[in-house]
Amino acid sequence: MMSEAKYAVRYCSKTGNTKKLAEQIAATLGCKAETVDHSIQSKADILFLGCSVYWGGIDPVIKNFIQNLDAKYVKKIVVFSTSALAERAYPGIQRLLKEKEICVSEDNFYCRGEFKFLHKGKPDAQDLKDVSIFARKFLEE
Would you say residue 10 has pLDDT above 50? Predict the structure, then answer.
């Protein structure tokens, strides 16, 4: 009998956009979405890690979380992100995780997030449906 995969969802969200995605992923996987203030202290086959991209790049809180990750607890990381202007957080996070020798899925999720007058209502119902479909793919791994 195969053991059941264990998932974890961690995120950093200043405006609530990434939090919406994190909560949808967690609901799809049957786990809890927590901020990166909650470290990973038990084994996770897949950690879904979410953040936004800001003008200055990846938030220092995410960088600190990655620096403190222990490869013995996490087999693989899947990145999801939002932003109003800059594109995906994936390349920057991938570089940081390679230094930690933690496997990063090449498959990642990105959508626009609402910021001031830009992208009103994003992530919207379609984005939440899309991120749920995205997360379900990992249930089959």
Answer: yes
